[in-house]
Design goal:
Blueprint lengths: L5 E3 L3 H11 L6 E3 L8 H4 L3 E2 L1 H4 L8 H22 L10 E5 L2 H16 L5 E3 L1 H7 L9 E5 L3 E2 L2 H14 L3 E3 L4 E7 L2 E7 L2 E4 L3 E3 L12 H6 L1 E11 L9 E5 L5 E4 L4 E5 L13 H14 L7 E12 L6 E4 L5 E5 L5 H18 L6 H4 L6
Parallel strand pairs: 1-2, 1-12, 2-8, 4-14, 12-19
Antiparallel strand pairs: 3-7, 4-6, 5-6, 9-10, 10-11, 13-16, 13-17, 14-15, 15-16, 18-19
Helix pairs in contact: 1-7, 1-10, 4-7, 4-10
Length: about 375
Amino acid sequence: MSQEPIIIGAGVIGLSIGWHLTQLGFKPLVIDQGLAGQETSWAAAGMVTPASEIRFGEKHLTDFFLDALHAYPAFVSAIEKISGIKTDFQQNGSLLVAIDVDDEAELTRIYDYQKELGLDVSWLSEEQALLKEPLLSKGCHGFVNAPHECHIDNRKLTLALAKAFEVGGGKLVESKKVEALHVENGRVKEITVGNETMAATCVVLATGTRSNIKGLPEILSQILRPIKGQALCLRHGDTPTLKHAVRTIHRYPVYLVPRADGRLIIGASNEEKGWDALPTAGNMLDLIYGAWKVLPLAYEMEFVETWVGHRAATRDHSPVVGPTEIEGLYTALGMYRHGIMLSPLVGKIMAERIAKGVESKYESFLNLKRFL
């Protein structure tokens, strides 16, 4: 290609694509209208939990999620080595916990589905679960262990990715908005950034839900929407309260993700509220109550922070990854709840698609064509 690839969006997906391209000899440009990794990637919890997060009707995504999990250790090792930034990557597994008898029935249904898909999970007794996590409530009614799952400090990951990308020769431009994409004879020709127009032969959209760029395919604005998520952070001392990421099956479902410095991330609401960014007392109450039901110590913990983020979701809640009908225009959008988890795999397959023309085995069901 005559120009280096241009990636619009500097979240973990855009930065991962950029970094993988540097490993293939490119010097891509990543442009973000804000600061790198400061939107959805910053608001996440950092779970890499494909078995715990699988949903009925998502069987086609199982291998995609598992391949992302398997890619994580080598990805993190390389990023940490190049950047010199530790990401608090923990490979301790995760637990799914049912709070009461009704929840246990739902957890059993999920467990049966996980086994049907061939996922590596096991049912634990209360005694076995409390050996793993002694501070969990002794009144819970069911536990599923996913031993190979992991979690990471997503904020440290974004910082490490940005540094590794620049060390690899990539250029990061922050606080500059791409206003328009210019197409000629069915292929990408230029982009407009502020008042400047620059030549472009390869453009990757990794903008989350922010697809308000002139000249993009109209279908993108029709299939993408923001899903509001509220979360909070508590702390108890300076050592981790839990070893595992914990997700509850309950009428007030929560996840709890420990950090090495004693912080505990608790999330998250799932609201069809557009771009509303206001935290609400009711949702915070639900999150704290759900956390207290599984971890009674939460009642005594220090309040550190609350925040609101927006997940990018498509109509079918599956990502849109690959080329478009416009030659030279690619998408890496709609990661929904899975952006952190999918970042190493999406980065790799997109870089290989751009650099070598290699079509991944996932492209047939992740391509934008399914909505046309």
